[in-house]
Amino acid sequence: MSQKRTTVFIVEDHELMRDGIKAAVTREDAFAVIGEAADGKEAIDRVPVLAPDIVIMDIGLPTVDGIEATQTLLSKCPHSRVIMLTSHREEAEVFAAFAAGAAGYCLKESASTLLKSALTSVAEGAVWIDPQIAGMVLNAFGAIGKGPRRADGEKNPLSERELDVLKLIVDGLSNKEIAAELQISSATVRTHVEHILEKLTVSGRTQAAVEAVRRRLV
Q: What is the DSSP letter of 11?
């Protein structure tokens, strides 16, 4: 019995680039392209209907840019995960993309093997960052971490086990990897993640990781 393939939706305004991305994705048996859009508005309309596992999203799009489109479509289709595939490498845009809920950030100039790596990691529940911008992201996390610690009187909302899970989320592990590391079931990990997001009042794993470092929880 064949394994269920991860479904992918592509949002890219240049047709030749869109065709190239589609060819790179479908080269892997584990992934299937189920739709595409040439602008942000079309993506917002179509993604919730098709409910793909992963959306590959450009930032510079007509009608609605990729960052706004990501935020909007994830509010309608929260189980989909977004990988930004773009030529934009400015810090403001990178962090705006993650703040909007993106789970991955890949530069167009990177090799197709890196796109495969991004797809595989994000499909498994991890966050993926292009090596060319990873240093910038890590430096920013370091700067956040040097901020004031949680005040002594401020109550930590998370349980010890939730803190264990949160630390592994910050380390970029998928739910499956966290389950193996902590020797608990994937279903239990999912429950812990849901509680973490609720208690930290964030909408995704990336935001939870940022909040964990900002508040010095891990």
A: E
